[in-house]
Amino acid sequence: MRENILFLLQIITIDFFTAFGLYSILYLIVLIFVKKPILYKIDEEAVKFISLAGVIYFTAWIIGIFVFYAESNPEEQNDLINRLFGKYWFGIWFQPILWFALTQLLRFKKVSKNALLRIVFSFLLIVSIEQFIIFITSFHRDYLPSSWTMYRDLDIYPSNFFLALLIKIMVFLLFVGIYYLVKSQMKKFAINRIIEN
User: Fold this and answer.
1) What gap in Å lies between CA 56 and CA 100, rounded to an integer?
2) Orientation of helix 89-105 relative to helix 115-126, angle to 10°
3) DSSP per-residue letters across 87-138
4) CA distances, 161 to each of 44, 112, 130, 165, 166 (Å)
5) 4 near 68, Cβ under 8 Å?
6) What is the rounded distance in angstroms from the CA atom of residue 49 to the CA atom of residue 52?
7) For residues 20 and 115, what is the distance between their CA atoms, to the nearest angstrom?
8) What is the full DSSP assignment across 34-81?
9) pLDDT tens for each residue of 12-52
10) pTM for this structure?
11) What is the DSSP-derived secondary structure letter of residue 44?
């Protein structure tokens, strides 16, 4: 069960949050040159999808805490409690609460339509606090470019950088399309049931 929860959290953070951040930057760039209504509709569905992904992420994270606690030995349980509620509790709670809050703030039209907020939110969804700290400390300790590639959580390498970014955005948009189709089919089904009754 632990592995399944970790896998789900990793899919949401890397394939959805990161991809939404990349998509938002691309969307804002494209919006400068193209003002088509279909772009606004796609963005609206992408924002709804990422809001749902934020709820699923936070729920899975909370469930994961209980599962890790239940499947651990007493020593690991004590360590988990100390990490969650000890001296540095904010280090554990900050990132999931931040991602949840960002994704839910996007539900408001004023927030999701504001270009500056979207850029800030994109940066915060692409780069986790842990990655940011690793990046800053690596600059602090070593200025050599050879050590910049030590942390590769996103699996984006210089040789296929643009292709990897494009694929991440396309997979994200594919999931947004699936989400839209499922949502519209559920609406039709609910309307048909209301009409029948």
Assistant:
1) 9
2) 140
3) TTHHHHHHHHHHHHHHHHHTTSHHHHH-HHHHHHHHHHHHS-HHHHHHHHHH
4) 27, 27, 22, 6, 9
5) no
6) 5
7) 14
8) ---HHHHHHHHHHHHHHHHHHHHHHHHHHHHHHHHHHHS-HHHHHHHH
9) 888 899 999 999 999 999 988 988 889 999 999 999 999 99
10) 0.81
11) H
